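Batch 3, record 17
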Amino acid sequence: MPQRRLPAKCPELPPGSRPHPRIRHVIVLMLENRSFDHLLGYSRIHGVDGVWDKRASNRDRDGNEVFTSDDATPAGDLSDPGHDFPDVRKQLYFPQPGEPDWKSDPPMQGFIESYSEYVGADKSHNIMKCFAPESVPVITALARNYAVCNRWFSSLPGPTMPNRLFVHAGTSKGRLDVSAEQFDITPTIYEILDCANVPATIYSDGWTAAATFWKLMKHQDQFYGAMDDFYQDCADNNLPAYCFLEPRYASGMVGGIFRAQNDQHPDSDVTEGEHLIYRVYKTIRGNRKVWESSVLLVVWDEHGGIFDHVAPPPAIPPGDEIACDPPFAFDRLGIRVPAVVVSAYTDHAVLNRVFDHTSVAATARKLLTGHYQDDALGLRAKMANTFDVALNRKTPRLDHVEFAPRPLPPFYVDRPLNRLQIQHLQQTLLLDSKLPESMQTRRTMAPFRDLNSNSEPARLRSIQAAEAEEYTRRVMTAVREMGGRFNPTGPGGAGCGEPKKSK
Amino acid sequence: MRRAQKIQVIALFAGAVLHAGTFRDMQQYCFSPANKGLGIHWIEQCLQTAFTDDPYHLTVTIVAPGTGVAIGPAFELIPRVRHYEFLFTGMAAISTDGSSIGQAQLTLALPSRSLSRQAVAPLPGQPGNRPSPKPRSRAADVRASLTLGARRINARAQDFYGIGPDTSLNGQTSYGLQLTELYWGFSNPLSSWSAAGVNVSWMAPRVTSSANGELTPIAERYNGETAPGLTIRDDFVHYEPYLMVRLPPRNSLHTVVRAGYGIYQDLGDPRYSFKRISATSTTTIPLWLPSHNTPTHRPPIANLFCPSLRSARRCSIGTLVLTASVAASYTGSNHVVPFYFDPTLGGENLQDADTLRGFRDYRFRGPDSVLFQAEYLHPVWGPIGVLSFYDVGNVALRPGDLSLGGMRHDIGTGIYLHAGNRELVRFYIAFGSGEGSRASSKFPAAY
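Prediction for the assembled complex:
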């Protein structure tokens, strides 16, 4: 009987490649848009490069020096600060005019200036606010008890989508922007692991940033699951080897039960995200077999326009394509984000190696197949540092680290769609259009009837968040109902060409 | 009958014309000449539009057992008032025999604070920390909810075979039932594995003459003694606190137990007031086989009979569902339970739950009942699966008479269609009851 294989070019496993003897599951929880200093800068953990012990500042438009402070509130401080490529470029290199010299280290002085363009001078100081450890007890407790990464940077100085592409595929194929149609990318870590007969799944709560990886979507029973499935699989000790967890990107009613946004994207309440981290940790810790065979990475996709004082270092380009307009050769990492490695084999440590999101695929491949240094996911993933250095124990920890999140906010606060949610919506509209016409959800939901993935963002902004969430869930359900019959195609994403062809 | 048919036609189209968007969609996907080239898919598109359009659409449901399939308009709205979100649903449907149902319900998800306490532990290693009790935390998604609703059922022909375990087919009669109900419920999660709540309702049940002229009317063969409640027209208030437990809380193999204590108070004649303890236990057992390859590394035939789970270390060979339910009614001296509040066994009951599927609807009726069911479901291909089941149960006139002796039983098999984890429709045939075979279809989730 012929075997059904994914059309990925499978890398050869060198003789002698062996997976890690104890780690059978690599679990990655990636949240949204918070910088390292913002969440852990005041954690007062010995060895952590934070801001509680130094005077980190930016100047506002009046020339006043504004220092970081530890008075951030769970919600209400920020309104989706700019974090597209031009915004981040300014945050890094302001006050240098014109196109920066990406080879020079950035002064990190443009955060207030960039945010002023969105909210005016009055509120721009809020971009410097950081959380006191009491305000984010879950991530602080995990950082204090397990391994916290001092130098984990987003993969490029840009927004969510291309950064998440680096997690999945080691490259964004030259893209810096966020348009939906780019996200047909292959191969991904899922295909590469499947080559080695290693199961991998993306667990999402509604929308997934990998919804338009068409080659994966054709095998969605294998590669996609709901977050509730993750909790179930964890309890059943039935986890895939590689689990990528996505938060809930928008609030909505699911089956009559209100479910709040928990991705921590500004200005959603960070407490909701803390509860998600807590639940994931507790679920893993709650099954001893899973606990003793897994490593959990909690990481953020990018900084979301929020201040961090550490200049991102130069980076190895992925080696496939570069961006032309605006020009960028992917030769410098994005801004630093929090990352904590949790495992039964991890004593508290502060890791000072440089990591970026390609370290996720590299580490997963190293731990689960024993090999990762090849060209399957590009040059950067090949050369990436792996965070298995956090596995610094031979025997499993069986102590129970006791902590708890703060109480949830009492009320749901209605907000307009943020830019990421608009991108979700564009991607969902594209996904919907790939379904047979009779199954397309937009026909049956009045606000979406006249929309498509090319609709103007201003037009999409008129959609209510709960409606968008409901629409997304219905589309994802329709796609799941299609199962193996879902056979979408689409243009692959690309920048402007090979690295040498820059304008 | 002519009047009922008129109402039915009006109801069929009411859902479409209520809303301009729905009307436009119906025009486009059901009546546009451009659809001619679509062949059979034209019907699929039209039905899809009709039954899922938002916020107004058509619905298919069952008013009560034996009344046929009901169809009508429905809506689902999520209005928002300031910071609160509501789920507002409603439907009106009329069935082929003229029976009807109308229902409107408002659900409010309350803020996260509920009756269960939350505590925040101090951070480890912080100066000044005192030893704290083990912190308690609830899942972020678990919130209390409040439900308000109203329902009106008019079931024009319902079977009645008498009360107790020893009734016969010869005693078959028919009656009509009109039930008006106003209800509210409060559900509060206590933990990730338990919830408590209370349901309160005002009910006005009315027994009417049957629309089925082929069967003997109930009043010709039974009276207030043999069919308690037949002659009264009282209103009732029903209170029921309940507790639900799921153990283990997150495993696929799990048991859900619901236990309730219901008080039915007759607002007219106290002789018809009673109390009822009811409990239902449902155990779901996923059945697995070991598998060492991801689906793409397995022969397609293996994926057909043994659909892979994500882990690839197991594949599913189906699910076994074991259900046990018991109801025991307690009355004061000289008090009786109105027959329309008795649990029934046979076919489906008024709450649309399967009972003894090899017997006719409402075949056995009594104030006390016990039922055990085993059902095996196995997905076969795409949305199609097969099922088989075994039911055993009986009713009694007194709680003390409930026993495992003299139980009625049946077996059956069928197919079902599912989308994701949701079962859409099932067709089955049951036999072994000693009273012939019974074929039936069911829509577990109303569209």
